[in-house]
Structure formats: structure tokens, C-alpha cells
Design goal:
Order of helices and strands: HHEEHEEHEHHHHHHHHHEEEH
CATH superfamily of the domain at 60-163: Conserved hypothetical protein from pyrococcus furiosus pfu- 392566-001, ParB domain
Distance between the termini: 177 Å
Largest sheet: 5 strands, mixed
Shape: elongated
Structural class: alpha/beta
Strand order of the largest sheet: 1-5-3-4-2
Number of strands: 8
CATH architecture of the domain at 60-163: Alpha-Beta Complex
CATH topology of the domain at 60-163: Conserved hypothetical protein from pyrococcus furiosus pfu- 392566-001, ParB domain
Number of helices: 14
Oligomer: single chain
Length: about 325
């Protein structure tokens, strides 16, 4: 091999050395304590995040276990009257009959008191039914709530019950408004219902206090639509007529439609004596209408509110007419 060939091979070797890929750089672990700490910090952070996630899962499982129903003595339960959803005797008997033959699907929710007893948040009627059945204990779920959230939670627990009267829904929303200061829009959003429904429920706000006192005796007697119509009549200056109509409605003398018509009926002043005689005359006992009669020429027509009232009055009317006939005969000398 000549010098020329050696030089060529040498040049190729040198070129290959310059183009060779460098070995991948490997991190060098520091030997000092601060350096080692900085080197391990990413690993430490990752482990801390995993520990926090595991702790959150454990706390969630613990909370779920704490919310599991437990059997509690009925004697330890404290009832709060205004939280109890009102049931008719028929509805309560139906509930009692159901619980007599079936397990309690929805446990009573309670809040622990400082005295070691338990205040019912939701389930007053279920607890009362268990007492009526002679049971000693009932399944409950124990909640730990702030005092400010207790009433709110109790109300919303009953809100979606189909048998909850509109008036009681209104009372709950009114209490929530007074507690929170929220607008109707915000209250509707929190409750998950339309703002128009909340607005109609607050029509009860515009009824006279005397009317509200009558409704409290029988909350299921009037719905929010009827209340809205009555509120319009109150704004039109017919508050007294609204109170009278609601009284008759609560007493079962009128339907909701009839009550609205009666409250809105204008008393007409007869133009002539003949017109006054031809109009219907209502016979009342207090605000309760017994019957009405109307005369025309030689006819007298009487309308009673029920057939039972007509039957009771018929004998008395017959006796009165017979007495008048006797008087007429005596007067004529026959």
C-alpha cells in the first residue's frame, strides 16, 4: 500500500470520527444534599398529588358510609311543626297502610342537637306513621348542617312532593327570600323551577292578611292560579270581596272558579223599583249563602245550594204557604 492510499484511509477515519453521534447524555445525580433535594423534587411532588387524591377518595367513602341509614329510637326524634307537610286523613291512612306492609324506602333525615337528640328535617309524616303502627325505631340518615342551612334543606326536601299545596310552597319560598335576600329569579334557579312558577306562587303575597289566615286553615283549597286571579282583584280594589270569597272557598261552599267569579262580581244598583224586585235576592247567614230567590209577576223562584238544603226547607215552606192560605180564607170570610 502506498503513501497515497494510507493518506486516503487516514482522512476517511478522521471524517468518520467527526460525524459520529454523541452518546445520549445521562443526568448526573448530584452528590450534595441541596442538589439531591432539587433532583428528587418532581418525584416528591408527584407522590404528594397521588396522596392527596387518595385522601380525597377516602374522605368521600367515609362520608358515604356516614350517610348510610341507621335505626334510631323514635323517642329521640324532635318534630318541628312548621316543617311537616300537611296530609289529609285519607293521605295519612294511605301512607300508614303502605308502611305497614312495605319497608321504608326513603329514610327520615335528621340533624343532631346539642342535647343529644335528633331534629327531623324531612320525614315527619313517616315518623308519625311509624308511631301509629307501634314501631319503636325508624331508619334515619344523620346530616351535619350549618344552622343557616337547616330550614332551607328541610324545605327543599319537601318541595318536589306532588301533594305539597301551592300555599305551603309559597311559605317556604317566602322564608327562603327573607333568609337569603335573594330575588325571585335567583330562588327559581336554586330550586330548579321556572321563574314564572315562582312569580305565580308569590301572588299569595298580594292577598290580604285575613285571606291568608283563612287559607292557613286549609292550604290545599286554593292553587297559585286562583291566588293570582284573586291578587288582580285586590289590586282592582276588591279586597273585601276576595276575603269573603276565600272564606267560602275554604269552607267548601265554592269551587276556585266560583270564588273568583263571586269576588269579581259587581253589585248592580237597580235603576227602578221594578228592576229591584226582579233581581235575585240572596239569603245569607253571615257570609254563607243559604239560597236565593227571584220574583216575577205572580211567580216566585227559589234556588238552594244543594238538594239537601232544598229538602229541609221544603216542609217549612209548605207549612208557611198553608198558613198564608188559611189567613187568606179567613180574610175572605169563606
Amino acid at each position: 500500500m502506498g503513501l497515497k492510499d494510507l493518506k486516503s484511509k487516514s482522512d476517511q477515519a478522521l471524517a468518520s470520527i467527526g460525524s459520529a453521534r454523541p452518546a445520549e447524555a445521562r443526568p448526573v445525580r448530584p452528590t450534595t444534599a441541596p442538589g439531591a433535594t432539587a433532583f428528587m423534587q418532581p418525584t416528591i411532588d408527584a407522590l404528594n398529588q397521588r396522596a392527596k387524591a387518595a385522601e380525597a377518595i377516602a374522605q368521600d367513602y367515609k362520608a358515604q358510609l356516614e350517610r348510610q341509614p341507621v335505626e334510631l329510637a323514635l323517642d329521640l326524634l324532635i318534630e318541628v311543626p312548621h316543617r311537616r307537610r300537611r296530609l289529609t286523613p285519607e293521605q295519612f291512612d294511605e301512607l300508614k297502610g303502605n308502611l305497614a306492609n312495605n319497608p321504608l324506602i326513603h329514610p327520615v333525615t335528621v340533624q343532631r342537637t346539642a342535647e343529644g337528640r335528633f331534629e327531623i328535617l324531612s320525614g315527619h309524616n313517616r315518623a308519625e306513621a311509624y308511631r301509629a303502627l307501634g314501631r319503636a325505631t325508624i331508619p334515619v340518615v344523620i346530616l351535619e348542617l350549618d344552622e343557616a342551612d337547616v330550614e332551607r334543606s328541610a324545605f327543599y326536601a319537601n318541595l318536589l312532593q306532588p301533594s305539597l299545596p301551592d300555599f305551603e310552597k309559597y311559605l317556604g319560598f317566602r322564608q327562603e327570600r327573607e333568609r337569603s335576600g335573594h330575588t325571585q329569579k335567583r330562588i327559581a334557579k336554586d330550586a330548579g323551577i321556572s321563574e314564572s312558577v315562582v312569580s305565580m306562587l308569590f301572588a299569595f303575597d298580594q292577598l290580604p292578611e285575613a285571606a291568608l289566615q283563612w287559607i292557613e286553615r286549609r292550604p290545599d283549597a286554593i292553587g297559585m292560579s286562583c291566588a293570582a286571579e284573586m291578587a288582580k282583584l285586590c289590586r282592582a280594589g276588591r279586597a273585601e270581596q276576595v276575603i269573603e270569597a276565600i272564606e267560602l272557598l275554604v269552607e267548601g261552599q265554592l269551587s276556585q272558579k266560583e270564588a273568583v267569579r263571586q269576588a269579581g262580581r259587581q253589585a248592580s244598583l237597580p235603576r227602578t223599583r221594578e228592576a229591584a224586585a226582579s233581581g235575585p235576592v240572596r239569603v245569607r247567614v253571615g257570609r254563607l249563602e243559604f239560597c236565593q230567590y227571584q220574583s216575577r209577576g205572580t211567580s216566585l223562584r227559589i234556588e238552594f245550594r244543594s238538594e239537601e238544603q232544598r229538602i229541609e226547607a221544603e216542609a217549612a215552606i209548605a207549612a208557611t204557604l198553608q198558613a198564608l192560605a188559611e189567613q187568606a180564607r179567613n180574610a175572605s170570610g169563606r
